[in-house]
UniProtKB/TrEMBL annotation:
Its EC number is 5.4.3.8. GO terms for cellular component: cytoplasm. This is Glutamate-1-semialdehyde 2,1-aminomutase. The lineage of its organism: Archaea, Thermoproteota, Thermoprotei, Sulfolobales, Sulfolobaceae. It is an enzyme of class 5 (isomerase). Its cofactor is pyridoxal 5'-phosphate. The modification N6-(pyridoxal phosphate)lysine is found at K259. GO terms for molecular function: glutamate-1-semialdehyde 2,1-aminomutase activity; pyridoxal phosphate binding; transaminase activity. Pathway: Porphyrin-containing compound metabolism; protoporphyrin-IX biosynthesis; 5-aminolevulinate from L-glutamyl-tRNA(Glu): step 2/2. Its main location: cytoplasm. Pfam families: Aminotran_3. The keyword Oxidoreductase does not apply. It comes from the Archaea. It is found in: Cytoplasm.
């Protein structure tokens, strides 16, 4: 039972968990015994239609048969070498084909590693120390990213974590998302190595860029010889096969990836223009290394995932599901706004619009959490945090899954 597992977890893990958002389910998290397709199954014998999907990686759903088959084939050959293998080249080739701004790539093991190294690389390339980020954008859990951060950092009241030296904080400049005037002013008056941005905010709920915002970032960074880093850990291969860059028609100098390109296994990557990437060791003097970099299991799962996406119109199908679900959410009588970009969305209660983190934090979180609990009681799992995204997968492209979700929303929408 989950209650018994929770008691034991509190003995071994800080706060009982190994990532803080997992403690957001009250009074204690449920424990998963298995996942298949659109469903997760708990140690308490319950099943839930899962719209969290590992917080984004599982765009095909749980335990996709083709991915599983390819992973088993690789496991039989071995799962760690510390030596290059063919599959890392195959995955890199496919990523570069779909995202042409990525001329060279380095595989790492998490989104945190990807953004940390992209920032280091930008500093090494430009010979500047400062970066500019946006309030509520979450770029992982390293020091430079945990300044006015979103996601669980905001959920647990630590968007500025303790333990980060003041000297580090002085190198990070923050603007409000969708505020081009602030960006232009900072770039004009400061020597900034890079602007890093979530092209769609996915860690303060979902917040899309306003018209012209991303193109404005591209224009200003080019004018002031600053690198533009798109953090596409969430949006990469979710909004389009070319990510947010293809979807919005804006190319970045460096791109960070994760989640989907690992097929549900640990993954991160950063890539970009050849002359920038060649600054990395061993060809340059910006250091990166990792025992598990380009791990063959993650490479295999990611390659298999992208192959399924290419042949099964996954983005179109997942977007269809998101449209159907949000149509029902729109019928909720309690005042709300829904932000959706393709197959990722979130609902905010008690506000008329959400275009940045400040506005997102004004939403009535307690109403969202009541709604989330109601949904769980009716067999649907939305993220247990206002500041996460709802995702759909290929496995949700099923009439029964959609109709059961719509019915659960109807039963859960009494929020007064």
């Amino acid at each position: 039972m989950s209650s018994e597992l929770w008691k034991e977890a509190l003995r071994y893990f800080p706060g009982g968990v190994n990532s803080p958002v997992r403690a957001a389910v009250k009074p204690y998290p449920f424990y998963v015994s298995q996942g298949k397709g659109a469903y997760i199954y708990t140690e308490d014998g319950n099943s839930l239609i899962d719209y969290v999907l590992g917080y984004g990686p599982l765009i095909l759903g749980h335990a996709n048969e083709y991915v599983k088959e390819k992973v088993i084939e690789q496991i039989e050959k071995g799962w760690l070498f510390g030596i290059p293998s063919r599959v890392e080249i195959e995955l890199a080739r496919k990523i570069s084909f779909h995202m042409p701004s990525i001329e060279k790539i380095r595989f790492v093991n998490s989104g945190t590693e990807a953004t940390m190294n992209a920032i280091r690389l930008a500093r090494g390339y430009t010979k500047r120390d400062k970066i500019l980020k946006f309030n509520g954008n979450y770029h992982g859990a390293h020091d430079y990213a945990l300044v006015d951060a979103g996601s669980a950092a905001s959920e647990f009241g630590v968007p500025n974590s303790e333990g980060i030296p003041q000297e580090v904080l002085k190198t990070v400049i923050v603007c409000e998302y969708n505020d081009l005037q602030c960006v232009e002013k900072k770039l004009k008056n400061e020597d900034i190595a890079a602007v890093i941005v979530e092209p769609v905010m996915g860690n303060m709920g979902v917040i899309p860029p306003e018209k012209g915002f991303l193109k404005g970032l591209r224009e200003f960074t080019s004018t002031y010889n600053t690198l533009l880093i798109f953090d596409e850990v969430i949006t990469g291969f979710r909004l389009s096969m070319g990510g947010a860059q293809e979807y919005f028609g804006v190319s970045a100098d460096l791109t960070t990836l994760g989640k989907i390109i690992g097929g549900g296994f640990p993954i991160g990557a950063f890539g970009g223009k050849r002359e920038i990437m060649d600054m990395l060791t061993p060809s340059g003097k910006v250091f990166n290394a990792g025992t598990f970099n380009a791990n063959p299991i993650s490479m295999t799962a990611g390659l298999a995932t992208l192959e399924v996406m290419e042949r099964e119109n996954v983005i179109e199908k997942t977007t269809y599901v998101a449209e159907k679900v949000t149509e029902e959410l729109e019928r909720i009588k309690y005042p709300h706004v829904i932000n959706r970009v393709k197959n990722m969305f979130q609902i905010f209660f008690g506000v008329e619009k959400v275009s940045n983190a400040t506005e997102a934090r004004r939403a009535k979180k307690e109403v969202y959490l009541k709604f989330q609990v109601n949904l769980m009681k009716n067999g649907v799992y939305f993220p247990p945090s206002q500041f996460e995204s709802v995702f759909t997968s290929l496995a949700h492209y099923d009439d029964n899954v959609i109709s059961d979700t719509v019915l659960a929303i109807k039963k859960s929408s009494e929020l007064s």
